[in-house]
Amino acid sequence: MNTTRTPEQLNRLARRRASAKMGWYLHATVYVIVNLFLAAIALYQGRHWYAFPLLGWGLGLALHGAAVWLVGPSAGLRQRMVERERAALERQS
After folding, report:
1. Is 2 contained in some domain?
2. Which of 93, 88, 73 minimizes the C-alpha distance to 19?
3. 18 occurs within a structural domain
4. Which domain holds residue 38?
5. 40-71, pLDDT tens digit by residue?
6. Per the confidence metrics, is the pTM higher than 0.90?
7. Nearest CA to 58 among 92, 32, 89?
8. Are 53 and 38 a contacting pair, CB within 8 Å?
9. How far is CA 3 from the centre of its chain?
10. Which residues of 10-47 are buried (b: 16+ CB within 10 A; e: fewer)?
11. Which of 11, 64, 80, 83 lies 20 to 30 Å (CA to CA) from residue 41?
12. Is residue 1 part of a domain?
């Protein structure tokens, strides 16, 4: 079902999708940094408990990614993403 959208609607939707993707990138970055820190602490202690937050949070990150990349779809990067989303939406209309 192709519905014709106004340029304003396309721009708003493209911005929303680009923001969702940037949110996932931020989530993934924090995930990596925090889990590296936790792994360092655990390995220093000679234990392997860091696998539990790694796996649990990893599942959350995967679900977040599925919601952003499969279901839904720096300023320069954000702007390029907005433009890509806008172009894709215009092709669909």
Report:
1. no
2. 73
3. yes
4. 7-92
5. 999 999 999 999 999 999 999 999 998 888 77
6. no
7. 32
8. yes
9. 27
10. beebbbebbebbbebeebeeebeeebeebbeebeeeee
11. 64
12. no
